[in-house]
């Protein structure tokens, strides 16, 4: 379990680092646009992202048991 969690965090950081590495100017522009969003809009995107992640994890665990 701990190994899987560390692997997931490692993959997360690799993916998070791709855009700043490959297209730093566009990443900065997107980051500045996100900073201009209201708290409610940021919370909505955070919630949607969490629900999508939960859906992916649930589908993985449900199909892995069968």
What does the model show?
This protein is mainly alpha-helical and 66 residues long. The protein folds into 2 domains: 1-35, no CATH class; 37-66. Helix content is 91%, strand content 0%. The protein has helices at residues 2-22, 24-35, 39-65. The longest helix has 27 residues, at 39-65. It is flat and about 45 Å long. It starts with a helix and ends with a helix. The mean pLDDT is 92.
Short structural description:
With 66 residues, the chain is mainly alpha-helical. It is built from three helices and no strands.
Topology:
Layout: H1 2-22, H2 24-35, H3 39-65
Helix pairs in contact: 1-2
Largest sheet: none
Helix content bin: over 70%
Q: For the residues shown, what is the average pLDDT? A: 92
Annotation, overall tally of beta strands: 0
Question: How many helical elements?
Answer: 3
What is the helix/strand order? HHH
| Total separate domains | 2
Cα end-to-end separation: 20 Å
> Helix/strand-derived class?
mainly alpha
Rg over alpha carbons: 16 Å
Query: Quick one: overall form?
Result: flat
Instruction: Give the strand content.
Output: under 5%
Low-confidence stretches are none
Structure characteristics:
66 residues, mainly alpha, flat, 2 domains
